[in-house]
Design brief:
26% strand, 41% helix, three-stranded antiparallel beta sheet, three-stranded mixed beta sheet, alpha+beta, 167 residues, elongated, 5 helices
Length: 167
C-alpha cells in the first residue's frame, strides 16, 4: 500500500508514498477520480498510521520532448515552466486557475502529438499567444511583450492596434 508505480519506456520504479503528517508509508486509497479530461488521476488517501487524509495526483509521464531555444540551447519541455509563464501573464486578471491549467495542458498535448523529440520554442510561444488572445487580451499583450522582446512603448501600441483590427 502507499506505493506508486511510475514508469517510462525503459524502467518501472516503485516510489513509496509517505503520509505528509506522520511519514508513515502505509495508506489506503479512499477515492480515485479522473480529472482534466482523463489526463490526471486524483486519489484521496488515508494514512493507516494516524488516519490523516490527503490527496495525490498521477499523470502520464511524457517521454522527454526537448525545446529548441532561440539561442540554439536545448531544454526539456516543462509543463510547470509553461504554467509559470502563463500565470505571470494572467496575474491580477479575471482568469480562473482552471482556464490557465487547461491552456497549458492543451499546449503540451498539442506539441507532444505533433513532435517526437524536439519542438521549436516559436511553436510553443505561438500556441501560448493564440490561447491567451482567446482568453484575455491584456494577458496576451503581457506575454507578447516578453516573448517578442518589446523594447519601446510603440511596440505595445502596435500590438494593441493589431488586436483592435482583428475585432
Amino acid at each position: 500500500m502507499g506505493s506508486v508505480l511510475q514508469s517510462d519506456q525503459r524502467h518501472k520504479v516503485w516510489f513509496d508514498m509517505r503520509c505528509p503528517k506522520c511519514g508513515c508509508q502505509d495508506d489506503k486509497v479512499i477515492d480515485s477520480r479522473a480529472s482534466r479530461e482523463g489526463a490526471t488521476i486524483r486519489r484521496r488517501r488515508e494514512c493507516v498510521g494516524c488516519g490523516h487524509r490527503y490527496t495525490t495526483y498521477e499523470e502520464i509521464e511524457r517521454a522527454g520532448l526537448v525545446i529548441m531555444k532561440r539561442d540554439n540551447r536545448r531544454e526539456e519541455l516543462s509543463k510547470e515552466k509553461l504554467l509559470s509563464g502563463i500565470r505571470k501573464a494572467c496575474q491580477k486578471r479575471p482568469i480562473s486557475p482552471k482556464v490557465v491549467e487547461d491552456l497549458a495542458e492543451n499546449i503540451v498535448n498539442t506539441v507532444t502529438d505533433k513532435y517526437e523529440r524536439e519542438v521549436p520554442a516559436e511553436v510553443i510561444g505561438k500556441l501560448v499567444m493564440d490561447g491567451l488572445r482567446e482568453i484575455d487580451e491584456v494577458a496576451y499583450v503581457r506575454f507578447a511583450s516578453v516573448y517578442r522582446r518589446f523594447q519601446e512603448a510603440t511596440d505595445f501600441v502596435q500590438e494593441v492596434k493589431k488586436l483592435e483590427s482583428k475585432q
